[in-house]
Design brief:
277 residues, 74% helix
Length: 277
């Protein structure tokens, strides 16, 4: 078992609780993105046993974090919203040099790739102007909302695997974020099971699709990923905090995020994602 994936799952689980922050970005930072895609895709094949050592500890880390820290994240976002968001902005910004190095931008990118980065980045950044209206939390299942929650989990999980796109933000746009967080906080297992089923299906579909694109259209896919990550910075940006303690805390959190990203990126340079492609 790759038990160090427990702490990796912790970071991915925390990021998946924050609207605007992508678990895929954190996977890139941790140097496990390509292995994550291959393991999810391979787990649902005849050779599923060989992927358990990677996925089980990672899944445990994510699951435990979602259950134990949902209330903590709610508290931080409510009481220390700006510093929390600035920390994740630092993480996202800090991972960009690592990804550009893995993509070997100077060697492989032409003007068309930079245009893709610009267009994708602007498109995602524009979602920052969308004001989601999260509906009242669902606490009891009906036939209609069961189907809706399943497909919401599907859509959210597909976004989780794409760097730059937040699964939580997708849930927020679909009006079920408060339902998901409430179910985790209150251990509403029927709702957790329905959303979880959608998440599993979404993982299967998206892991295969992203792996195919990275293998067949490597450079343009990396350009899209870089654009998504850059655009997500604008989605996470909470606005400039007021002067005094909130401002100081936000500045410290921002640079802490950059430092953390660089530490993990430096330690994972040897596991370059492009080595597989």
């Amino acid at each position: 078992m790759q038990w160090r994936n427990l702490y990796r799952g912790f970071f991915m689980g925390i990021s998946d609780l924050i609207p605007g922050v992508s678990g895929g970005t954190i996977a890139f930072m941790l140097g496990i993105y390509d292995e994550l895609l291959a393991s999810i895709s391979g787990f649902f094949s005849r050779n599923w046993k060989k992927y358990i050592a990677f996925l089980l500890p990672l899944g445990l880390g994510i699951g435990i974090t979602l259950l134990l820290f949902s209330k903590v994240i709610e508290f931080l976002l409510k009481n220390y919203h700006a510093p929390t968001q600035f920390f994740f902005m630092g993480l996202i910004l800090g991972i960009i040099p690592f990804i550009t190095k893995q993509a070997d931008v100077k060697k492989n990118f032409k003007w068309t790739h930079f245009l893709v980065i610009l267009l994708v980045g602007v498109a995602l950044a524009s979602t920052a102007f969308i004001v989601p209206h999260d509906s009242a939390p669902i606490t009891k299942l009906t036939m209609t909302n069961t189907i809706g929650l399943f497909f919401a989990g599907w859509a959210g999980s597909m976004a989780m695997l794409l760097p730059g796109i937040s699964g939580s933000f997708i849930l927020l746009l679909l009006g079920v974020y408060s339902t998901a967080i409430g179910a985790l906080s209150n251990l509403n297992f029927p709702i957790i099971a329905v959303i979880g089923a959608g998440v599993i299906v979404g993982f299967i579909v998206s892991s295969k699709a992203i792996s195919y694109l990275l293998a067949k259209f490597t450079h343009i896919t990396f350009a899209t990923i870089i654009g998504l990550i850059i655009g997500s910075i604008f989605v996470v940006y909470p606005g400039m905090p007021e002067s005094g303690t909130p401002f100081v805390m936000s500045v410290i959190a921002f640079f802490t995020g950059i430092v953390v990203a660089n530490i993990f990126s430096a330690s994972n340079t040897s596991t370059a994602t492009t080595s597989k492609y």
